[in-house]
Amino acid sequence: MKTDIKKIALLGAMTAISMIFSYVETMFPIILPVPGVKIGFANALIVLALYLFGPIEALIVGLLRIVLTALLFGSVISFLMSVSGFALSFLIMYLLFKSKKFSIPGVSLAGGAFHNFGQLITACMLMGSTALVKDTVWFAVFGIITGMAVGFLSKIVYERVRSNDRLFKG
Length: 170
Fold this sequence. Notes:
The chain has 170 residues and is mainly alpha-helical. The protein is 78% helix and 0% strand. The chain has a single domain (2-31, 38-167), classed as Arp2/3 complex 21 kDa subunit ARPC3, CATH 1.10.1760. It is built from 6 helices and no strands. The longest helix is centred in the C-terminal third of the chain and has 28 residues, at 136-163.
């Protein structure tokens, strides 16, 4: 029972922190030639949840963050963009995680790139145009760079958390 409460508390804290990261990133947009690119620090919490607790918990943290952030700070469009990017990203990260052949930064890198592809597909569908396809290379480049940065951050935090056994022992 005590472990379940601790797990729920940690997952709740991870959800809240990821919401804060999402909100802060919208307040300070990055000026780049591609619209809507963000570093994606909130995704570090998804990667951490995946490695610390497992895919179901990571999925729950991710979906809760998306829904709550959209309700509090976003719109229907921001929800659709977030959920589409997350869905493709999470699927790829889960498959790579399950294979046990990729490092935390590698899984995050793939997640970052595919997150951008999911959003690109959704944006094209919403616009009824393929005009953004010309920016696919930029989306891939920024997805890889930000995914790798988030991955290294996740790896550092993961190693620190795992070395603190008090969090995971009754």
